[in-house]
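Hi F.,

I've been meaning to write this up properly since the lab meeting, where we talked about keeping a consistent format for the predictions we share between groups. The idea is simple: the sequence comes first, exactly as it goes in, then the structure tokens exactly as they come out, then a line or two of notes. No screenshots and no reformatting. I'm using this chain as the first example so we have something concrete to point to.
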Amino acid sequence: MRKKVSIFLAAVMAASMLTACSSSETAQSGATQEQTEASAQTQTGEESASFAEQTADGQTYKVGVLQLTEHAALDASNEGFIAALDASGISYKVDQQNAQNDQSACQTIATKLVSEENDLILAIATPAAQAVAGATSEIPIVGTAITDYAEAGLVNDNEAPGTNVTGTSDLTPVTEQIDLLTRIFPDAQRVGILYCSAEANSQIQAEMAIAACEEKGLSSETFTVSSSNEIQTVVESMVGKVDVIYAPTDNTIAAGMATVSMVATDNGLPIICGEAGMVEAGGLATYGIDYYQLGYLAGEMAVSILKGEASPAEMPIGYLDASKCELTVNEETAAALGVDLSVLDE
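Output, unedited:
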């Protein structure tokens, strides 16, 4: 049995990821309107406003979606985005593409979506956004499930993007997650930080976790994988070296959580995770953001762009309010580990 308890966090939520190109193109309709054609215009500098001038309310918009891989957080972001489009009442067609965590597939799909002259492209996770941004500087791109857009080279500044890219950040509350770790395991001394070295945003979170552990007087050691094929071997190498595993919002680890949790739980190692989907897949607990709401916010931003009310270059990166964070625990995992979670009720 799993339970979720909504909580308020005091910290500001400020803190990502493959084919086959299984594509499903579905038509979503608001009021039936005659479709008009819009040529793409550059979204940077003074030209950023031109996109607004060439799209008229009432058209059927073409929206391409590139999702890096399948796992609970990214899937929820996708669902939230589509829900926001539906709620807006606009008429649109969406082309859903999933790269199944394959970098070359990201490039191929990005090129396809650009060549088909979509009015806007949603990129879910950092590698997906980087692939699309590398393929076009004209079509508006809205990202989601990306930790730091500026660090990833997608925008000039998170407050003033200055490019054809904007979106929502999933910067996770790392400090609060390490606090959670110490509440459940007050005697823990050694923390193993597990992430994929190929994911830049995971490195950012790992550095935050190292700093948070140091503040708590905990020692920490990083353990990295370069691909999903290394997960079992790396987790096995952590046994006997650490007391608790911390895994941030890393797409490779999230997609391979079944393997991570199998090895860790069998060896008595609890996992504090970066997001709820990882807990549901076998981790122990997290304070995390709601990825459905994160995608919904990205969808609202996309609607504003499509309707000509805003341009990506001038739209700051969006963050969820701290009130959207949740405490999620996996009671089955707790039982298997013999961990008492009653301390969280105090």
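Notes:
Confidence is low (pLDDT under 50) at residues 1-56.
The two ends are 20 Å apart (CA to CA).

If this format works for you, I'll send the rest the same way.

G.
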